[in-house]
Amino acid sequence: MLEHTAPGHARLSGRLDMHSIAQMVQPLVALARQEDLELDLSAISEADSAAVALLLQAKRASLASGHRLTLTGWPASLLTLAQLYTLDDVLTAPIGT
Fold first, then answer.
1. Which of 28, 31, 84, 89 measures 20 to 30 Å from 39, CA to CA?
2. d(CA 91, CA 21)
3. In this model, does residue 38 exceed pLDDT 80?
């Protein structure tokens, strides 16, 4: 689930897989394009490679719009998955200024 918690802040929660992220892509990309965004990942209970793809898409949208996307509260399992694909540096580094 994607929740816009405050201006510049949002949270992803629950299970993120190829079935659940379909409804999150457009709203998350729109938020990333609007403003600098801090996205809290700490409430994600399960994730697969689709979650990594979702985060990459949000990072790209943010960068293309000249905004910063900061991902916080990485669950260990999601960070391990990002490391497996050697995307942890891309996803954890602040992009934009």
1. 84
2. 17
3. yes
